[in-house]
Amino acid sequence: MSLPAVEESWARIDAWLARHAPLTRATLRPPAPQAGIEDAQRTLGVPFPPDLVASLRCHDGAEPDDGAVQLPSYGPLCGVADIVRNTAFLQSLGAGEAGLPLTLGIGRRPSDGLFIACRPGPRYGQVGRRFDEDTPSFAHWPSLRHVLAGLADALEGGLVFLGRIPLAVAGKLGWEEERTVPAEAVSPLTRAAALAEPESDPPAPQRPVFPNAAGSDPRPPERGGTQRLFFVRTRRPHPAPLPDQPDVAFAAGLTPAEMLRRLGAIPATVRPRDRRQAQRAAQSAWAAHRPLVRAGEAGGWAYATLEGGAAQFARPEVLRALSAGTRVAVLTRRGPEVVLAFAENGVPCPREDTRRVMSPREGTAAGGPEARRLGVDLWPGSTAAYTRFLAVLRRDFGIAYDPDEEGPAELTSALLLPLLDDLPTEDCGIPAQVRHLDLAGLVERTPPQRLRAAFVAQLSRLAAETHLDTYPEVAEALDRIHRGLPVDCDQDGPLDSRLRTLAAEAHATRRLLRDGGTAPVSHEDLTAWDARDKAAGALREFLRLPLPVAAATILDQRVSLHWHDELAADLDSG
User: Fold this and answer.
1) Residue 327 near residue 341 (C-beta atoms within 8 A)
2) What is the pTM of this model?
3) Residues in the chain with pLDDT < 50?
4) I need a labelling partner for 490 at 20 to 30 A (CA). Which of 130, 199, 506, 516 fits?
């Protein structure tokens, strides 16, 4: 099959847009004058490839308005003036040698877009792509003629083009990613539950022993009539161990058990552990990248120390949960930063009342566990600041806590199912458009009850296509929503526990893939858990936030390419 000429492809594109997306068709400019093209070539000092000239003679690019003709991920098509202006800009950045820009780029950034090679040579007329600081590369199109033919085929056949599928919505051309969510996914948490927690440190390697005849001399046996030369290896004195300085949270009047509960402790993992046991367990596959904390008491205050996993105590949602009905002080250290923060009766202290120290890094040794093993303190300023803040807690609150002393003690400890992130505030507003839909206009012109009924249906569709509705807690919540009944999503309830579990599954899968190795998970598993976790977030927003805010999230997460038509049907039936 022969490749159509540029003019033929543009005729097909124009015809499709006129029938299905007339508002987008209206953004295409008239043909560029031949004199203007020739003047641009003289200005830039390069001959335009014939395909580029033919395309500009069909349309002088597109107006970069809402709904303009865009190539997915690369932005609207350039006209003659855009080519001249953006080439000059790219040359000023030292990035204009690859070719002339064909598209304006997403967000009108010419450094992110398609270009066409115009210098004489084997690549003359080929289409390439550039992304900001990356080296420009040539895509799989030998020419602009191939690009326009592919665009015309995609529009007429609803085919994938640049990873997206074209859709006509309210008279405008939009591009949607074709997605599927696997029904089954490997569960890191289920696999972790089948593993045994490591109980202790592995035994230290033994040195070989050469007993003599009496069985007591560790030296190698001597042979008669020979002399042996012994070398004695001396070691440098081992550096003093660095102090333990874990993230620690203190809560007045609570018991350690209550503190663990508020943090989201998993009951089946609660048991006594010393610091070394806890840290080894937290680093094992058994933990599945969930945080592990130990809890004790210090002079009327319960405390919890983070022994492994993602930081928790400085999160606003955690501060609120810990300080409900009491007061809380939290001391955290992350490399160069040490923070002492407070909360009372569920309200974290203002930022100006938070004490924060940033220290410079010292030394050139490698960071991480290796530096600590060697006794190298990369952030001595932070080490000193942590110690000073401990003195502040003792002086101002009577909290006597020494992490080095309590480390060997066996304290009640547990893995956490972390609390969910805060939802956006109610006054955050809603986006005017979501995936080419005028959401603000829809909310304004639709009666509230009808709008709610439509988005109840949309939420159910989202739960079905992400397989979120296969969990009984979610299915029950959706049923109650349909019947207009209240839904309990408070902490420790079955629905909240399910949503936190989904978030932990997604986090563990992402970390396993990032760490590499022989992790028994795939990117398909991550797709599944990530989609369910985001759909769960949409459900939370529907239950807790104003409907328009939740509506934007629901629509943004819909998987079906036909969600526009389904929304229209839901609005009609409502």
Assistant:
1) no
2) 0.81
3) 209-215, 218, 220, 223, 230
4) 506
